Amino acid sequence: MRRKASFFVILILLLSPFFGDVAFAQVQVRVRVMEASNVGSGFDSSLRDLHDQLGSLFSFSSYRLLKDEKVSLSLNQSVLLSIPPERSLELTLINQRRVTAEIRVKITRQGRDLLTTLVRLAPGRSVSIGGPKRGEGTIIIALSRLQ
Amino acid sequence: MWKGGGSVKSECSSISKLLEKYFDQEVTPKERSLVEGHLPDCPACRMALDSMQNLRILIKSPVEEAVEKENFPWVWEKIEKGIQRKERLGLWDFLKSWLDVTPLLKRKILIPAVAAAVILILITAPLLFKKTTSYPTLSVVEYVESETYNVMVYELETPQVTVIWLFEGPEEESSTS
Amino acid sequence: MDVNEAQLISRCQQGDQEALKEIFNQYHQKVYRIAYGVVRQREEALDIVQEVFIKLFRSIRQFQGKSRFYTYLYRMTMNTAIDHTRKMKKVPSFSMDEEEGFQLSDDAERRPDRILDHKELEARVKWAMDQLSPDQKAVLIFREVEGFSYQEIAEATGSSIGTVMSRLHYGRKKVQELLKDYVEGGR
Q1: ipTM of this predicted complex?
Q2: In a shared domain, residues B127 and B146
C-alpha cells in the first residue's frame, strides 16, 4: 500500500508542470483612470510605470491621475466602479490560466453598454482603454494585473 | 417612494420606505406591524402595493406559462454532444487514464508498469520544457464590441503596449502620435 | 448543500457525465426560468440552458463550495443569458434615441386606444426589462421570477444586500414607469 502511494506521489510530482489550468482564488487588478491632455505639463507619479508605454503612443503633455483602485476579481463575479465622465466600469473574471487571466471589461453609461471587451492580462502587463473626452482632456483607463 | 398613481400622504413617508421590504417579506415583525397598521387608512400605499403586485404578475406569468408548457426536447442530448465536442483528450487526461492501473498492480506486475511510466516521462519531457518557458502568444485583446464608438486596437510587443482607442464621432480628432 | 448534492458535484468535478445529468434533471427547469426571464423567447432560452450546463461541466472543478451550489449555478445562468442578449444584438422594436427618450414604433403609435393582445404585451414587458442595466435586470428576475430573498440575491450576484435593495428599487421604479398603464392599481 505504501509502495503504491509513493509511486503515485512521485509520478504526480514529476508530471505536475503539465497542469495547465490551476484555479487560483482571486486575481488582483489595478485600475487607474487618468485625464490626458495638452493643457499644462506633468506626469502623475502614480503613473510612472506606464510612462514608457503611454509616451510611445501618445503625444499628450499632461497625464493627471483621477482614480487609483485595486480590485480583487473572483471567477464570474463582477466588480463595478464609477469612472468619469458619468460612466461605470464593470470587470468580471471569466477564466484563469496559470499565467493569464481573461477579464471581461464593460463600460456603461446609464445602463447602456458603450463598450465590451475581453482582455488577457498577465502579471506585469497592462491594457489601456482611452478616447472619451472630458473637457479639454481625454480619459484613459489603465488596467494592470498585479503579481 | 412609490407613487402608485396618487400623491403619497406626508405622514406615511416613513411607512412608504418600508413598502418594498414588506412586499418582499423582508421586514422585521415590528416593521410588519407598522405597515399593516398603516395600510387600512392609506389608499395610496395600498395602491402602491397593488402596482408592485401587478408588476410581479407581468414579469413572472409569461415565465411560468413558458416553463409549464416546455418539455425540453433533446436538450440533454445536445448538452452531451456539446461536451464531447469541447472535450480534448489532453496530456493530463491521457496520463490520468494511464494512472488507473491499480488492477495491474494488484496482479503484481508493478515492474512493467513502472517501466512504462518512466518511458512515458521520457517521451513527454520535451513537451514539459516547451510548455513552461514562454508566455502564451495569444493576443491580449480577444474581442471588442461597441455600438457607440469606432474602435481601434493597438498591440505592440516592444514596449508591451495594448491600447483600445475609442473614437467618439467622425469630427473627433485622434490624439495618437 | 446536502450530502447527495455534494456527492453529485464531486463526481461531476471528476468528469462523471451521469452526475451532470442528475444535476441537469434537478435544475434544468430553474435554469430555464431564469433564461426565459431574461430573453423571453423559447429557442434562445433553450440554447442558454444547453450552454449553461456545458459551461458548468467545464468549470465545476473551480467550484469550491464557498457559496451554495444553486447560487453558483444561477449566477452562471444569469451571466450567460445576459451575454447571450448582448451577442444576439437584438434590434428593439421601439426606437431608442438616448437624447429624445424612448419612443414607440409607428405601428403602436397609430393604435393608442387598441387593446394590446397577449403577445404584444409580452413584447412590451420584454422591451421594458431590456431598458434595465444587466445588474438591475438580474436582481429583478431573481426576485420576481425566482422569489429569492435579498440574501440569496446578494450571493447570486456577488453584491451586498444594500446594493440588491437599491438595484431592485430603481429597477422596479423604471419598469413601473415604462409599463405604468398596466401596473397602476386597479388593473
Answers
A1: 0.78
A2: no
